Amino acid sequence: MSGPDTALPDTALVVDLWRGDAGGGGLVRYRVPVDPGQTILDVLTWVQRHAEPGLAYRFACRVGMCGSCAVMVNGVPRWACRTRAIPVARQGRLEIRPLRHFPVIRDLVVDFEAFFARWRRALGRFAPASPPPDALAVIAPDASDRQLVDAAIECIGCGICLAACDSVGANPDYLGPAALNRAWAAVNDRRDDTMGHLRAAARDGGVHACHAQGSCRRFCPVGRDPAGAIVGLKRRLLVAALKGRL
Amino acid sequence: MVTPSIETTTVDVLILGAGGAGLLAALHCHDAAPDLSIAIAVKGLLGKCGCTRMVQGGYNVAVDPADSVERHFRDTIEGGQWLNDQELAWTLVTGAVERVMELENRWGCFFDRAADGRVHQKAFAGQSFDRTVHKGSLTGIEIINRLAEQVLARSILRLEDHRALDLLPARDGNGMAGALLLDIRRGVFRLVRAGAVLLATGGGPSMYRYHTPSGDKSTDGLAMALRAGLFLRDMEMVQFHPTGLALGPATRATGTIIEEGLRGAGGHLLRADGARFMTDYDPRGERATRDIVSRAMAGEMRRGNTGPRGGLFLSMAHLDPAMVRRDFRGMVDRCADLGFDLVGGLVEVTPTAHYLMGGVMFRPDGTTSMPGLYAAGEDTGGVHGANRLGGNGVANSTVFGGRAGDTIARHAVAGAAPPEPDPAVVEAAVTAAIRPLSRPAGDLYHHRERLLDLMWEQVGIIRDGAGLAGALAELEEIGAGIEATGVAGGPLYNPTWQDRLNLGNQVLVARAIATAALARTDSRGAHYRADHPAAGPLDETTHTVVRLEGDRPVAGLCPVAFPRLRPPPPGCIGGAA
Ligand SMILES: Cc1cc2nc3c(=O)[nH]c(=O)nc-3n(C[C@H](O)[C@H](O)[C@H](O)COP(=O)(O)OP(=O)(O)OC[C@H]3O[C@@H](n4cnc5c(N)ncnc54)[C@H](O)[C@@H]3O)c2cc1C
Ligand code: FES
Prior knowledge:
The complex is a heterodimer.
Chain A: E1 12-21, E2 24-33, H1 40-50, E3 70-73, E4 76-79, H2 85-88, E5 93-97, E6 104-106, E7 109-110, H3 113-121, H4 144-152, H5 160-164, H6 166-170, H7 177-187, H8 194-202, H9 215-219, H10 226-242
Parallel strand pairs in A: 1-5
Antiparallel strand pairs in A: 1-2, 3-4, 3-5, 6-7
Helix pairs in contact in A: 3-7, 4-7, 7-8, 7-10, 8-10
Chain B: E1 6-10, E2 13-16, H1 20-32, E3 38-41, E4 59-60, H2 69-79, H3 86-105, E5 121-122, E6 132-133, H4 139-152, E7 157-159, E8 162-169, E9 176-183, E10 188-193, E11 196-199, H5 220-227, E12 232-233, E13 238-245, H6 261-264, E14 268-270, H7 290-302, E15 312-315, H8 321-327, H9 329-337, E16 346-356, E17 359-360, E18 373-375, H10 392-411, H11 423-438, H12 444-458, H13 465-484, H14 495-519, E19 542-549, E20 552-559
Parallel strand pairs in B: 1-10, 2-3, 2-11, 3-7, 11-18
Antiparallel strand pairs in B: 4-6, 5-6, 8-9, 9-10, 12-17, 12-19, 13-16, 14-15, 15-16, 19-20
The complex binds flavin-adenine dinucleotide and FE2/S2 (inorganic) cluster.
The site of FE2/S2 (inorganic) cluster has 13 residues of chain A, from loops.
């Protein structure tokens, strides 16, 4: 049976995909049948399954939890699995490129090594000064420090904030929004060694390398506010410096 | 013809998988024995793959003074319909107390607090006490983020974008020699030599038309274990979650979970004609347990009472929209991103394959029947019996992952030369993996559709002997079809090649599931035989075991022991579900 719902030209998206590797590459055009529910990830899957078996792209969870799938879509960093294709297409066209500010491995797959190295340099981990007690800490859920932690954790590490950040473009040593947002969560965690985290955020490439343009907040797909976190860190650092504690 | 290139890496310990089980094993092993060299392999990026990351509900643990590990244990055994290995289940409930404390105080997880400042514990189906610790409805992100950043800070070798292809037993039959991996980025084989190997690739019933696990999970670990001659138990026990999204085959979002709490909060399930049906099946209606709701839905779907995408409908429209928006913000946002309205509209849903209760037979310390090989997490069987309680999955992977890490730290000797692998086994594994690249490309996804549909229809929620026998024959045929299919695109980061390797493992494990399901002639928990609907006498409970004979899975039955808790005598059971 030949139904009218197969790939008629006017029911196809025109998709330009960047293909290549660290040595260079360029855009290749594909026509992808339209389906109302399809996401950017589904567009990539269609190309891989029907046109270009070797197309390299990344995903894992399919639902916006793992942060593996971010790509540039028509110039904007987005999570592929949670972005529907039709609303972000321009006149039926999509241009999909690897995530900005990340080294390319192949096609749309990028290298996260430097992203996590920044996380590490920002002391992005629980590092209490003394061994914690053998009990679960009692902390009121509405305490202001707890609420600051809550606002900062649940980052999915997708790299979109880093892709959107112009400061990191200008200064590759900059720790960047995601790592500093993690540091801010730690600084507000009363179980942790908050001064240690504050010192890490003050180093070269730390909070002072941020030019406060706020793209990280604008593009974060899960509503975190790394720009606010950086402002908070700067304020805390100033107070600590005035008290001579740095 | 592609010529394989093989690189060799030698370590003391090789961990396969970086979910809750793999990460905790790495941390425990490293911190207990810092001299050991440890490698951890993961199919994608560390901290981003697997299902621990996707845990929404939370983590069951008896930490409230009014609760007890004995109660958690009883709930786990009753939920498991007496099929559990009781020593494993006891280790789970006692180990969870220690592990949750450790997650908070050593790794920095910050779970939600109740108004009095103590850790908040919520209700989860099938439990006699509200004992589920959580971080909002994104518990897995908090756990995996905190664990992954600790691994990043240690000298642990990360083999990212590396898939394990096969286990390598020692040439002289004495222990483990390591595993063969594929560096997905470079298309290069990596022979990792290690005398201690942990299998923690997370199972995952991704060979069903509708499934919840992440895309990197394709039962690789279970297939590797079968090929290495290990025994798997309880493979017929596949848990279905009642509400997955039914959005049609054009999107990968199909099969992903719509939160269980929506039914708890009063959501209705409707047929295509708009009528509710759950009250015809159970007095609790939509609030009945996962297995009952899934079975009722499967029955309605078989009768064809379905919507345009083949599913039924979830409706919240009769409830307070402000409540739905407030209490289920993440789900409301997710649905909105995908183009529909969870608050006021209808969402098309289907039961979806969620979790494999079955897996490698192992001991509470993580050892298996093969010296040098350890196993933990969803790759293992016996902890949950016939049904896993919501909240016992992440407890399982974190408790047993950590324990396996401790055991390996005690057994492994830093710098000891690992046994020699059998070169013939290495060569066979390399050849099998690389073969598709030199065969003419075929329609791989046609075989995939057939596999997923067949498992759904005949080895799914409602089974019978004739259907299972037919499915076994057809699975063999599908397996042969997959085996013969080549792929184009070359060796570098080629997702089609990866899918081809995935499917080879999925169809093998599918055959193990069907074989076990045919062997079990009663209905327990997740396993329902329309031709044998009774549970059978509980005190004569047996569990299935499957192993490979040649290249065919064969099943046996073993009695279950009741060292801690005996089933009630016949006549005393209520509707234990
Ligand atoms: C959507 C969803 C929600 C869930 N919610 C809950 C909940 O609320 N509570 C609960 O208790 N449980 C829940 N579960 C179940 C829980 O996630 C799992 O039981 C558990 O976390 C599994 O942990 P694991 O470490 O064994 O495997 P995973 O966390 O799945 O990790 C497997 C790892 O192995 C890697 N891997 C796979 N194959 C290979 C290979 N060939 N080579 C190398 N690496 C490989 C993967 O990339 C991954 O890193 C949920 C599951 C899903 C899918
Ligand atoms: S695939 Fe996990 S966030 Fe998109």
